[in-house]
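haha ok so turns out i had the wrong file open the whole time. this is the CORRECT one, sorry everyone. sequence first:
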Amino acid sequence: MQMSLFDFEVNEEQAISDHAALLIDGNNLLNRAFYATRNSMKKSPAGIYTNGINMFLHMMLKYKRDLNASHLAVFFDKTRGFREKLFPGYKGTRNNQPDELKEQFPLLEALLKEMNVSVFADEENYEADDLIASVAKQLEPHMKVYLLSNDEDLLQLVSEKVIQICRKGKEDIYFDQKVFCQNYGFLPLQIIDLKGLMGDSSDEYNGVPGIGEKGALKLVQRYGTVESIYDNLSKFPKELNRYREKLEAGREEGYLCKKLATLVSNIQVVENKNEIQIQWNINSLLDFCRKLGLHRLLSEVESGKFT
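then structure:
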């Protein structure tokens, strides 16, 4: 789900860590990069569109530098996995991407691998968000973990040491647990309960019929979880009685949608943090820039702008 629910406050400038991991939602960032530069699309000498790739690489290098990241990995979606089996309409129209964007995904992934950037994807059961969740949980005891994505699903991972970087307008918002609670009024993990009730239009599931954003927010702020809401149906105060019948009728949908929203965080993606330690082959990046005609990025990398 993309950022759209509320107006957020920007917290104070984040202290730069000298030992941090940056986990990048590859699909989300390439989509953002493509649409941000769609009015100035360029092609390589071979006729391949490069605007999304160019901006993706620029952002990856910039955040790596600004966060002084020592570990970095990029994650891509290859399947809708177990969620599509639970709910066949899950992300039903997500394949409707323009060809100019589609052709940039395999090219970007190939480049990252040539650069020795750690790239992960699962083709059977799990989405990129599940892989990110699993790696974040594994790294959290050892270092600060930054998640670069506008996908609201990842906010359930936010803590004092796991920070999601979201772009709103021209500003970055660094969501740690404090900033999240200030803006939502509940804990990060409870985003799955909010979505269980109100659904997620981006992922194309509806939640409990008749429960919208405002009602879901009231219920979660008062009772905390979908389970607690249903345990207390008979004790609702007068101001919440109007939701009771809808909740009773949509009980099954509420529990299902919470499950769809819940990220799997116990997948063995890496054996240890050293697997995603940055040991890049910059010469591969330079060669790629020359091949695709990314002259400005080539000049910036050669000048040391991102070091």
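The beta strands are 20-25, 69-75, 118-120, 144-148, 162-168, 171-175.
again sry for the mixup
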